[in-house]
Design brief:
about 260 residues; alpha+beta; nine-stranded mixed β-sheet; two-stranded antiparallel sheet; 13 strands; about 20% helix
Amino acid sequence: MQSTKSFEENIKEALLNISNQVEASDQLRLRVNKAVRQQNQKEDFLMKKRFSLKSVAILAAVLCLTTVTVFAATRVSQYISTSSSKPTYTSFPTKEVLQKDLGFVPNSVETFSNSYTFHEAVIGNTTPVDENGKKMGIYKFISYTYVSDKGEKVNVYVNKQLPGATSDSKAAKTDYKSITLLYSSQKYKFVPADYKLTEEDKKAQKSGDIEVTYGSDTVRNSIVQNVTWTNSDKISYGLMASDSNLKQDDLTAMAKEIVDKNK
């Protein structure tokens, strides 16, 4: 599964070549890392990363899947997602605009009751790829960014349910209006491309205490929380907060507000 260049070399080269056009955010890297790691627990961590690069976007597995999503080994081998670093919307999009641009209208909130307010959103595409390298269609997604009055951010990722995705039974469940909200929290260690794992890193990674994610300029630790769910229309949602003061109850309450915005 290893390409001619390592994952680290590809990312470093891509960011150097197209830094003005592409934003490889920490959230992108951690979501990719988590999903690829779950694809096959028995394989070496660095051997699992399969990425290709294009001039205006970094293509990576599972941008709009949540961190509690896993691969169906018999069908989907990876997901390739593309999006621009430039936002599609800087003002809150209407239902009519979303139907035209996205092809469906997700539940969405302009301002949450805790004052997190819409900042921008981007539309992108996700392509599931099977074990033989065959593309299994193209699915549009939207990623919303919300900012608090203190400048803290949360993101909401929405896509039509993708093939090959199931839920992690370890996630904390909250039933709300016939929908199951799944909460998870994970420690991440962001490291530079040339970082060498310590024995402590390897043990923590193997036990699931941390996820190691390559591509950062410096070594730093982060805690990422997610609330995910799929509604009756087979549209999947993921609410993500990184190093946030928000707690599980806060994020679950925000998720409920999105559910309440049923069209």
